[in-house]
Write a structure and sequence with these properties.
Blueprint lengths: L25 H38 L4 H4 L1 H24 L1 H17 L1 H8 L2 H27 L7 H27 L13 H23 L27 H32 E3 L5 E3 L1 H10 L4 H26 L5 H21 L5 H4 L2 H6 L2 H9 L7 H10 L3 H16 L7 H25 L4
Antiparallel strand pairs: 1-2
Helix pairs in contact: 1-6, 1-7, 1-8, 1-9, 3-4, 3-6, 3-16, 3-17, 4-6, 4-8, 5-6, 5-8, 6-16, 7-8, 7-11, 7-15, 9-11, 9-15, 9-16, 9-17, 9-18, 10-11, 12-15, 12-18
């Protein structure tokens, strides 16, 4: 394919029919590797933003005295932005290209991070923080809508799931750091009775985040990512790609449903993990005597946590280490186990983990909960890549629908918070994640059949 003549059109890299992603030669491979590394930096940014939500729920319950149901609207603000703006972002990226879409998204992320300053210093209301999170997440939507599909088509299609899992591993590193930051800063000390609420400890990580995002924006302004033509990428041209409309390709449509239910499970677990750990590890008898699980007390002493909430946040840090481990090992395991089979196996494992969590064995079940992150590690990238398989020119549009399916994260936390408030138990609300992991298992097992139906669906 010959290079097109220079054009001033705003369609940028979408219109550049340059070397396909699978082009031979070490120089081409080096460019693809460099692009993968650079785009993986973005996964770290949104991983940090998402992981910080895990401590915000409990923080606002403590400081602004919102209920569990109300605190669940933190995730509604975040993932509602994904639902509302994923499709507009995809249409915009189709016009301006992947790289410019990333740059625009980074600017909006920085703006949302800096909005925490007026929210914490002057407004000091729950809706003000929700607005800042909505703006920040609007930028993340644009970044993710560009970055996720870009990684899937940045090489051979059979390696898409492993490639996205490696990129998502950078996301996992941020998931390790964020709860530690939250535990040390946000839960750094207990407020005294009658003491006015001070949000300065909350502002520090978000101001730093805004500065880092602006630095990444500058870096991306001076580099050039290899342009990708989905019709050529990885050999997924229109000869090999499925010809049917997206709605007739069950591996894609079922992938959207599965991603919706999985994200609901993941975000739900993240949102109320701290609450569950505290409720399960610390109990009171009829006489009001408090009993602390020995391992929980020991861990609090080792980490020198300033509060029980901080100790629980540090438990989440362990969970995130397992999450990162799963991401880094997931790509390697796919060399011997098919992605759909691994997805199904991990879905079964998490179904069993959540069953133990719902059993609510006091002082015991909280020890099992962190393993949920180990098995969640591969689910988002595998479902995403499997759903986009062989979609050719439909890849960007399909990716936007998959990003929209993240709205599951907006629905689950308020629902789980409502169940927890109604039944005065965190254990019962984990039925929502249970449904998501069962759905993930079914999708993994049924995937070969669904893919075959998509290949033979009428155009």
């Amino acid at each position: 394919m010959s290079d097109p003549k220079p054009s001033s059109s705003s369609r940028a890299d979408n219109q550049i029919a340059a070397q396909p992603a699978l082009a031979s030669g070490s120089n081409s491979q080096q460019k693809l590797l460099f692009a993968l590394i650079m785009v993986s930096m973005l996964f770290f940014i949104w991983g940090f933003c998402h992981a910080m939500l895990d401590v915000l729920n409990k923080h606002f319950q403590n400081t602004l005295h919102v209920s569990k149901t109300q605190s669940g609207f933190i995730q509604t603000a975040v993932f509602g932005a994904y639902f509302l703006l994923a499709l507009p972002s995809a249409l915009l990226i189709r016009r301006i290209g992947y790289q410019r879409g990333i740059l625009l998204g980074l600017l909006v992320v920085a703006a949302g991070a800096f909005l925490f300053v007026p929210a914490g210093l002057w407004w000091k209301t729950f809706p003000a923080f929700l607005f800042a999170l909505f703006v920040l997440s609007s930028g993340l939507t644009c970044v993710e809508t560009a970055a996720n599909p870009y990684v899937t088509v940045l090489g051979p299609p059979e390696g898409a799931a492993a490639r996205l899992s490696v990129a998502q591993a950078f996301n996992s590193v941020a998931y390790i750091i964020a709860p530690t930051v939250g535990g040390a800063l946000i839960f750094g000390r207990q407020l005294e009775a009658g003491e006015p609420v001070d949000f300065k400890s909350l502002l520090i990580p978000y101001v730093v985040l805004g500065g880092v995002v602006l630095l990444v924006f500058v870096i991306f302004s001076f580099i050039k990512l290899p342009p990708i033509d989905e019709q050529d990428a990885g050999g997924a041209d229109e000869t090999n790609a499925h010809q049917a409309p997206l709605i007739r390709q069950p591996h894609f449509t079922c992938g959207i449903i599965t991603q919706f239910l999985y994200i609901a499970a993941q975000v739900g677990v993240n949102a109320f993990a701290v609450n569950y750990i505290l409720e399960n590890a610390i109990t009171k008898d009829a006489a009001g005597q408090t009993t602390i699980a020995p391992l929980f007390a020991w861990y609090g002493n080792v980490t020198k946590a300033a509060s029980f909430e901080a100790t629980a946040a540090y438990v989440i840090t362990i969970a995130m280490i397992l999450y990162a481990t799963g991401r880094f090992t997931g790509a390697a395991i796919t060399r011997v186990v098919k992605p759909n089979v691994l997805l199904a196996l991990y879905g079964i494992a998490n179904t069993l983990v959540i069953a133990v969590v719902m059993a609510d064995i006091k002082h015991v079940s909280w020890l099992v909960l962190p393993f949920c992150w180990l098995f969640m590690s591969i689910m988002f990238p595998f479902i995403f890549a499997m759903s986009l398989h062989n979609l050719g020119r439909h890849t960007k549009l399909a990716a936007s629908f998959l990003i929209m399916s993240i709205v599951g994260g907006a629905v689950a936390p308020p629902l789980m918070g409502f169940l927890a408030d109604k039944y005065h138990s965190m254990a019962i609300c984990f039925i929502v994640p249970l449904i998501g992991f069962i759905a993930t298992t079914i999708y993994g097992l049924a995937y070969p059949y669904l893919l075959e139906r998509s290949a033979h669906a009428p155009a």
